[in-house]
Write a structure and sequence with these properties.
The protein has seven helices and eight strands, in the order αβαβαββββαβαβαα. Strands 3-4-5-2-6-7-1-8 form an eight-stranded mixed sheet, with helices on both faces. A hairpin with a 2-residue loop joins strand 4 and strand 5 (92-98). The protein has helices at residues 6-13, 29-43, 56-74, 123-136, 160-167, 188-197, 200-206; strands spanning 18-23, 49-53, 79-81, 86-89, 92-98, 112-116, 148-153, 173-178. By secondary structure, the chain is of the alpha/beta class. Helix 2 (29-43) crosses helix 3 (56-74).
């Protein structure tokens, strides 16, 4: 049994077509994202999933270790092809791709997509990349439910996440917000460092997960 925080569980269990998790530093966004992606493979076996980050360096720094830990915790055997950036498992593959060159988001089809650190990119570039992600996310699911595209990020002003989930909200979208302090595993010294480092406006975003 993996210990998850309340907002992580809400994100994982959400059945909305698009679920967003906007939260402060250290709140466990990427953990929730990798868990939901892996759980998708279990529920929809042999239906590949895609996981996106803004750059290939972030794929190596964030996605590689997070999925290795998560798949081990769930008891899912895997092989990591670092060259092709794919986790190969007996129940389906997790395809890792960069968002910084949307022209390369081609040549594969998946049943589920997760975008991590969606607000790091500019709104214009993220919008372009999102259109490409939608085009890849089209493998029919055995239960007939819509293909889902979920997003997690620390908010960076009124960027893509705000535009998509707040300004253009509809019934297919569900936005979850969380604070750094919601993660009881973090030491108090971490929060003090944030308070001593950032302005009031920056703390609203980077600690409290506010736009």
């Amino acid at each position: 049994m993996i210990d998850v925080l309340e907002h992580q569980l809400e994100f994982i269990q959400s059945e909305a077509t698009h679920t967003g998790l906007v939260a402060g530093f250290g709140s466990g966004k990427s953990k929730a994202a990798t868990l939901k992606t892996a759980e998708h493979l279990k529920y929809y076996p042999h239906t590949n999933a895609a996981y996106y980050l803004p750059t290939y360096s972030l794929i190596k720094d964030i996605a590689f270790p997070n999925f290795q830990i998560t798949l081990d915790e769930l008891g899912i055997p895997y092989e990591l092809n670092k060259t092709d950036k794919i986790f190969i498992t007996p129940i389906g593959n997790i395809i890792l791709r960069s968002l910084d060159n949307p022209a390369y988001i081609v040549g594969y089809e998946v049943g589920y997509s997760l975008i991590d650190e969606a607000d790091v990119m500019s709104k214009v570039k993220m919008t372009e990349a999102f259109i490409k992600v939608v085009g890849r996310n089209r493998v029919p699911l055995w239960d007939g439910t819509p293909n889902k595209i979920d997003l997690v990020s620390t908010p960076e002003g009124f960027n893509f996440m705000y535009e998509f989930f707040v300004k253009k909200h509809n019934q297919s979208k569900h936005l979850i917000r969380a604070k750094s302090t919601d993660n009881h595993h973090l030491p108090e010294s971490f929060f003090e460092t944030l308070r001593n480092t950032y302005s009031k406006e920056q703390l609203a975003a980077y600690m409290n997960g506010e736009f």
